[in-house]
Every structure is written in structure tokens, then in C-alpha cells.
Amino acid sequence: MKVSLFITCVSDMIFADVGKHTVEILERVGCEVDFPAAQTCCGQPAYNSGYLQEAKQSMKQMMRSFKDSEYVVGPSGSCVGMLKEYPAIFKGDSEWEEAAVDLANKSYEITQFLVDVLGVTDLGSTFKGKVTYHPSCHMTRILGVKDAPQTLLRHVKGIELIELPVKEDCCGFGGTFAVKNPDISREMVKEKSQHVSETNAEYLAGGDMGCLMNIGGRMRREGKNVKVVHITEILNTHEQGGGIA
Amino acid sequence: MSIKLGDMSYQDRIEKGIENDFMREAVSSAQGRFRNGRLTQAEELGDWEDWRQLGSEIRTHTLENLDYYLQQLSEQVSKRGGNVFFAATAEEANAYIKKVIKQKNGKKVVKSKSMVTEEIGLNQQLEQMGAEVVESDLGEWILQLDEDPPSHIVTPALHKNKEQIRETFAEKRGYDQSDSPEELAAFAREQLRKDFLSADVGITGCNFAIAESGAITLVTNEGNARMVTALPDTQITVMGMERIVPTWEDMEVLVSLLTRAAVGQKLTSYVTSYTGARLEGEIDGPDDYHLVIVDNGRSKILGTEFQSALHCIRCAACINVCPVYRHVGGHAYNSIYPGPIGAVLTPLLDGYDDHKELPYASSLCAACTEACPVKIPLHEQLIRHRQIIVEQEKKSPVTEKIMMKGFAQWASTPAAYKLSTKLARTALKPWTKDETIKNGPGPLKGWTDVRDFPAPAKQSFRAWWKERKKGVNQ
User: What's this model's pTM, rounded to 2 decimal places?
Assistant: First the structure.
């Protein structure tokens, strides 16, 4: 199966490893992977801030980049969730509507793709450690991916999964919200950090680097040494090496 | 009072809320109770999503035929001896109510369950004409004694706890007993009974007006609204023009959703319906009945992309799940409609000038949208507000505008984008120590004031990919 990577701007620039783990996981399950280099950002920072025209320029670039792809798979529930909104955004636009529908229909978040499209629930991963999982708001509520990440984690050999209290609560990231409303965002992430601490987990895993950057950044500021990892880092850890064994 | 509560700046309100540990603890524990109650009740009812869908369809149908149902309601109320007044503005509503009270030579007014009278600032108007006004819902009464505005739609005094309430009672009414809820409630009851018996006018709000019968329904847990509707000779109901359902069956669906979504109850202690004035041969009911139907900006929402905001049945489910509300409290919204629905509704009713920050006081986590029993897409409407603030109102900050123009340029030019992923690390080097940025420049400042920012990767993904293709990493 041919899969085009949607690496997301945050992952490309800051968390390049997340992209690498995504590639390796997809190849391990037999996908032929390519990376359309003209891709940029999904447009979410501008769209959620109210800059529709600016967001659309970015979105058009994404549609151009992936027009020939069969499947588009990315390591972020939030960014893939944004792609899924394109049809509503370009509705009635004779030039772009079709491309928007096409991109939305063929796009998947990585765990969603593995479980729902490929039917893979056990990647043969091995990971020793106490892990708690933060289900990001956009992954669960906008994209509607609730079970896939946790299904995959449950099949990891050696893992000890601990439930995060009030896990469905927002961590306070919210894209530009974190810098536009830093005081409120701080209080939200403080609470999330507290909940992570209550689990005594060694690792906090999630499917969105934005949220993880927020929670991890706060916990680091508070001097806590919980390791914050993208779910692919755990899923790509196996007996032959891979992720963060 | 009107929709707007005061003149404090947005930033000051946020800080004041965050610093109020007392309020935050009260709100947090109430949110936990309400949220769990809602989930338990939704599960017990079963098919919650089907109920929500039905609720949403009833609201959509009603709003799309609002003129028809308002006319039907008006005819039914008139037929039962009531007077109906359509008020286009707050001023018209207040003037009419004052006229009725003056004609009756009313001295004392007891009230219950009415947010819309807060919205139009009725109490001040009545006090100015020399009438005594007593809020009879326990929460509202506490706030009235304390001269404090409501902070929640369903439990207006949510931000106070029993110790504070005891202090208020002691200071304003000479209360000298404990802070046990039972004793506090007994004291309030004893005080309020005198008011119920001596009032000449009763004013209530309306949870649902039933078009087919002209009945007004109130959903309460205290029963005080029943005193207000049963005792004074003159009765006035004030309702927002959207608080209407076509039939009793529709009301049943919406009440089922309301009580579960609001406080996690199957049904509240009292669901009271009443119609018009006492007709000849009847033994109860008021001598004189008035229904005031208030527009005050609602009709201009009809037919717009915000129309579904008028679905709202004031259950506060969105408020009860909102993490922003939990940390800043209801007063931070500076509106009698706080929380996510307040952030949507307030600018629609009162314009953007005083409320342009509200649509941004959300992380767009969509917990509100998920909780809403009548399916208002709250987080989407917040984004739509932001678009209007940026594009039509032109009220967004200049620096942000420049940044977003830059973003569009960057994200639609692959070469520029590619270059930035290559240079990000170098550009941020002066602020980077141990792979971490603790005092970031420009837009990073808001971030690094409260948390660390990671240094960009040594090698961007696309650089790694390129090398891998060439076989460097194999």
C-alpha cells in the first residue's frame, strides 16, 4: 500500500524523530512510503485565530502537495483533524471543493490508519515502563479517534499502562491560545501536570506534539522528570531496537 | 445591570479570577459533581445521542418557524385572559413592566428564575421607580444581598461557599447560626416567606413556553418560583423570544435533556406549568397576567450561521465542562452569560466592542460542543466570531495581523518553508541552552513565561528524509 507522509510543521522542525518513527512503523507493516516535499502546514494556527484567508493559502498548498497521493498519514490528531475540515471550509468554491473533499477522505492519523484501515492492533512492540496516555482534544473530539491509540498501546509487550485522571480535559495548549492567553493556559497545564504526577508514570504518551510540547514544557519548568513521548516512539520500540528502548 | 457586568479590563478580570483560590475550588468541585451527574444520567437514560439529536431538531424546527409559534403562543395566552407584549428592546420591556406595576400601584415585587430580566437590567429600573424587588431563588437572593452579579447560568452563586454565605447573612440580615446548609436554607426560607406573602407583583422567567397551550413552564429545585406564581395578584412572565416549544411532547424531550445536562438529575423537584389569569369560575390564578416576550437582539441572529446559538436551553452543561471557566470563574466573562455559551452569545447580543476577547478565551478543546444537549457547535461558532473580529470588525492586534500574513506567505511557498525548517535551530540558538529555551523572543515569550520550549531538531525531518533517500542513513 502506498502512503504519503504528512509530517506536520511542528514535527518537521522540532520533533523530527516523530516523523522517523512514523516512517519506520509504516514500513514495518508493509507500506510503501513517500514524502511529498512541497507540503507545509495544515493552516490550523491561522484558521483557529480567525484568519481564514491566510489559512486558505496554506491549505491550498497542502491540497496541491497531496493531489496524487492514495493515502495521507500523519502523526498528529489535531493536524489531520484540520485536513478533515477542508471540505466545509472550501464548500462552494468551484476550484478547490473537490480537492478538499479528496484530501479529507484519504487522510488519517497514524494510529487511526493502522487500526481502522490496516486492521493492525499489535505491532509486535516491546516497551518496559510505566506509561500514562493523554488523549488530545482534537484527536478525540474533532477527529473522533478515541480507541485506536490505546488499543495499540495495550498490545505493547511489557508496558504498564496507567489511567490518567480526568484525561479528557484540555492541557491548555490550543495553538495560539497558549500565547494569547498565557495565564489561563498556565493554569490548565499546571492542572494537567499535577494529574500526570498523580499517576507516578515514568512516561507520558500522546498523539499530538503540540499538547505534548505544552505539558512537557511545563513539567520541565516545574523540575519534574517524566519523559514525554509521542505514541509512535513507544510503538516503534521493538526487540530489534527502534524507538526509545 | 445589563449583559455587561462592569468596566474592568479583560486581563484584570482573568487575573482576579485566577487569584481567587476560594472561588476556583468551589467551581472545580461543582464542575466535577455536575459533569459526573450528567454522564451517569445520560448513560442511564440510554441512546443519549438520539435524544440530543431529537432535542436539536426540535430547537431547529422551532427557530425556523419562530414567527408562527410566537403568534400561536400569543393567541393562546390572550385566550386565557393574559396580556402579551412583544418588546423589541430592553427599554421597551422595562417600560412595559414598569407601566403594569404602576397601574397596580405595586410596592413589592418578588422574582424568580429569570436571566433575561438580568439581561435587560430590570431590577435597577424597578428600584428607581420606588418598588422593592426581592430575588427569591436562594442563589439569586444571596447575590442580591451581597450586591454581586451571577457567575453561572444554573447556579448563580456557584462561586461562593457556605462560609461566605453565612457571613453575608450575618452582615445583611443579622443571622447568628451555623454555616450548615440546612440552617442557612431554613433562615432564607423564613425571611422569604414574609416577602412572598406581602408582594403585590410576581415576576418569573420561563424555561419553556408551550405554543399550543399558552402555558409557561418553570424547572426548579426550590419551589420558590411556585410561590411567586401562586401568591401575588399580578403576574408577569419575562421570556427571551426563543424560549418556546411547539407542543407538550417537545417540552418533555427538552426538560429531559435540561435536567440531566444541567445538574445530572432525571427530573428536578418541581416542573411547574401555569397559564394566564384567573378566568371566571376558576378558583386560583392571578387577577392580572402579562407575558413579555423580549427580542433584544435575538432576531438578528436568526438566519445567520449563529442561529443554533439560540438552541440554548440554559442548562450550563458547556460551562460545567469548560476548563477555562474552571480557572477564571464566571465573572471573568463580564457577562451575565458566562462560559462557552456566553462567549458565543454575548458578542451577538451586545456587540464586539466590549466583548472582543471572549471568543479567544477558549482553547477550542470542544468539550462544550460535546456536552451541549441541543448540539450547538460552540467551538466552531467561537472560530466564526474570530473570523468576524479579524475580517469584518478589524479588531485583531496589528502584530498578529502581520504575523498571519507572514504565515500565509511562508506556508504557501514551499522553498521558504523548507528553508525555515533548516534554519530554525540556528535562528533560536542565542536563546537555547541545554536543548531548551527558557526566555523566548517575540511570540515565544508568552509561551516561555510559563513553560520551557524545546530547541528545534538538529536535523529537520525533511533533511533526514533526503539523506535517507540517498542512502546515508541506511
Answer: 0.96
